[in-house]
Design brief:
It contains 5 helices and 12 strands. By secondary structure, the chain is α/β, with parallel strands linked by helices. The protein has one domain: 3-Layer(aba) Sandwich (Rossmann fold), CATH 3.40.50.880. A 7-stranded mixed beta sheet has the order 2-1-3-4-12-11-10. The chain has a 3-stranded mixed beta sheet with strand order 5-6-9, with no helix packed on it. The model has no long low-confidence stretch (mean pLDDT 95). Bound molecules: glutamine.
């Protein structure tokens, strides 16, 4: 797609579902770049932190010396965190027996796996306006984080049964759910248009 020509998006590739994001980026003609080293962040226009397992991701972020580089990247550059990626962006993890240390870039609190365990994973459609009028966006919740507090400067873009599930703050976007499992690229396009290209 011409609109996104010469855009290069990094996908944190320590663990989790990064390949599906690379696939969707490819559908839009966007170059994707796996990020696993601090230097990888220097050559990208935006970053996706995928779903996966936040305890493992947290551990690997330190193991690969990525914590400080991610913090400084996220202060001004575009990041979209999905599912475990949202957990990593959060300010506080409420139910934190596992000791995940989130990056604290976004002013939200969450409960990990706040919609129930793997067997209670579900799909639904969300009513959301991604800039072209209200649409029904299919969303898959897999051991998804539940937002329990939104900071004053965080915007809620979509809710599921009254709970925010798609939120933004400055240069950051976070979703409790997955959209990359199918080929529906509308939320990815929204991230590129609203956060990366401006
Ligand atoms: N609940 C998982 C965690 O704590 C996240 C699940 C997901 O990313 N699909 O990491």
């Amino acid at each position: 797609m011409k609109e996104f020509k010469e855009t290069r998006i990094g996908v944190l590739a320590l663990q989790g579902d990064f390949e599906r994001h690379c696939h969707q980026l490819g559908l839009l003609g966007v170059e994707s770049a796996p990020v696993s080293l601090p230097g990888d962040l220097e050559r990208i226009d935006g970053l996706i932190i995928p779903g996966g397992e936040s305890t493992t991701m947290d551990h690997l972020i330190d193991r690969f010396d990525l914590r400080r580089p991610l913090l400084s990247y996220g202060r001004s550059r575009p990041i979209w965190g999905t599912c475990a990626g949202m957990i990593m962006l959060a300010g506080r993890v409420e139910d934190n027996q596992s000791g995940v240390e989130p990056l604290g870039l976004m002013d939200i609190d969450i409960v990990r796996t706040g919609y129930g365990r793997q067997v209670f994973s579900f799909e639904d459609t969300l009513r959301v306006d991604l800039g072209e009028g209200e649409i029904d966006l299919p969303a898959t919740f897999i051991r998804a984080p539940r937002i329990t507090r939104l900071g004053r400067t965080v915007s809620c873009l979509a809710t599921y049964r009254g709970t925010p599930v798609l939120v933004s703050q400055r240069n950051l976007l976070a979703s409790s759910f997955h959209t990359e499992l199918e080929d529906d690229t509308r939320l990815l396009k929204y991230f590129l248009r609203e956060f990366v290209l401006p």
